[in-house]
Model the fold of this input.
Amino acid sequence: MKALKIILFVLVMGTVSSVMLVGVNSFTGPLIFKNEEMKLKSAVLGALELGYEKGNALAVFDGKVRVLDVDKTKFFISNDGAAAFEFYGPGLWGPISGVASINPDLKSIKAIKIVYQEETPGLGGRIAEHSFLKQFQGKEFFPKLVFMPEGKSSARNEVDAITGATGSSKALERLLNEVLQKNASILKEQLNKR
Amino acid sequence: MRFIKNTLDKVKIIAGNNKYLKTFKPVLNAMDEFFFGTDKVTTLPHIVDNMDIKRLMSLVIIALLPVTIASIYFWGLRVLLVIMVSYAFGGLIEVCFAVFRKKEIHEGFLVTGLIFPLILPPGVPLWVVAVGVMFGVMFGKEVFGGTGRNIFNPAIVGRVFLTIAFPKIMTMNWQMPFNKGLGGFIHFQNTVDAVTTATPLVLFKNQGIVTSYSNLMFGQSAGCIGETFRVGIIAGGLFLIVMRIVDWRLPLAYLATVFVFPYLSNHLIHTQFALGGFQLFSGGLLLGAFFMATDPVTSPFTKPGRWISGALLGILTLLIRNLSGYMEGVMFSILLINAFTPLIDTAVLKARYKKGRPR
Amino acid sequence: MSPKKTVKRSFRHTKWFKALTAGLWQDHPTFCMVLGLCSILAITNRMGNAIAMGLGVTFCIVFSSFFVSLFRNVIPSRVRMLAYMVIIATFVICVDRFLKAYFPPISEELGPYVGLIITNCIIMGRAEAYAIKNGPLLSVLDGLGCGIGYTLMLILMALVRETIGFGTLLGYRVMSGSWVNWVVMTIAPGAFFLLGVYMWIFRTIAKKTEA
Done:
């Protein structure tokens, strides 16, 4: 009898709280979905350097960007032919993720945005700073993007690393080379097919 | 001297009668002892050996003198300023706690205050020195109850705090040392634009460059203020060992492990460690092994314990140096092993008593 | 109780007032009970996060205490822990969804720590130590007191950590341009030392006022 009472109680409580949560979910679900969509799309717009304002990000995205699905990678291609894609991989202390975009020639970088990183604040964490990322513009990643000691970069495939944060710089170098070359060749194949 | 004595006595009498000034009595007593020695009379039985904590500390200071003078030559007169800031602000914390606790001021700070500047990069801003030494003395020593009760070496606590708090300042202020004529004795500091360079460990890790032994030994490489003149460090360390201040077992175990381990691991598991000789003479290893790992308060008191902790220190240092994101592992490993010191001692004693024979 | 007695008693000595203020000083969740430290260490590096977290925890304590207390005669004692868990989890998920929907930047900064409010011992502790034995209104007051006490602690931590760790407060620059950020204060090790100092100060005061 006592056991029955316990079971009954657990059942009732479980049901009540589940119903409550379903209610909360149906209420907040669409908003959360919209927030996440917004985050990705504004990051893509930023990487493709398409101007937008806070309110019209979604409209700009729909008007100027088309999405190309290849296997599991999503490519976001703007009207002028530049392509953006998400990337993620290991940094020195934690994962790094971001959005990269390449120019229509499929050989050089348009922009890099870091969305998430856990590197040492003030040292490796500077990989997410605009002053560091803006130097990637127009750099070539064939045969290889190379990080040079600060102030020593000169060639078209060289950028300045961050002094004192060799580990983070190396991790980002490896990650970018891998993802840029892989995605550029996938994209080339796709474009040749058509 | 008589003038100082008279003034001190007068001030003491005044302070003794004034209820507000009474709190500063420890400061006066410390000054008195500093100038004129203790006037405490001990009762029977007397210990014949007159090695007290104060003499022990002054011998360590003497052992550090060659390194300190050499560091002024290499990095300029600014080093003196850094040392003064370290003594002033560390001493301030020491005095504050002595006043609040109504206890005497300990002499332990004399060594901490000198070692701490020696393990900072030469271009370190003065306010960073002040913050570091205050943090080290407070959280490395005073919160545990003062000299003799600390678990961790206060100088290293301060240094690690600075490394984590100001990574940019602490990893980017390396300079090339003076090497001509009177060098740093007539300059305040090396001119700013001729400087930023990398330490031998960084050069090896990033570009595979091995600095030559003669440069490493005689201070012609970048590094912390007091860690580059390695001949002086070795001489000071040997002096301490000969004077029986420092037990030879721990440094020997530490250095031997660092020397042998890279060969073994390169052969057995094909790692890419720099070879033993370079490991020995780069970074703060020698300074750490002779002057900091052997701190009488924070190192094991049993002999096997010293061997064990020396070996552990060596392995940890190499692992951090070669496999982590940090360039130098000496201070982290000393801090870690400090935490294990009581455990090592207990384990050693237990193993002994199990065999049923006294120590 | 006769009306005469109630008049004599000052407001400060009513059980209502005691229930509310216990969590603010003499039974303070952080420096007296030393509970809920993981979120104090993890998320107090920015003032906005601290306030959001404090409000979230307060909400969860108040409501879970209320419901636990309401059903205290119905909850079978053998499964009471399970009952607390379910009630607390329900409200924590509410907070999590709410933040994700309306404050996505804060939700992102707090990361998994919103979900981890479930394991915050303060809430479980109040349910087991207070709400299961007292009426709903008293439990709500007690929960509110603890929640506010906890929030104040979070704010105190964030005040120092954001100011010297980032040089800002609530995102506004408060330090001069030449200020060098103390990176250690933005990560958990700095929070350990700061929390230690705060507990040292508060316990010294508590000892003096008691004596």
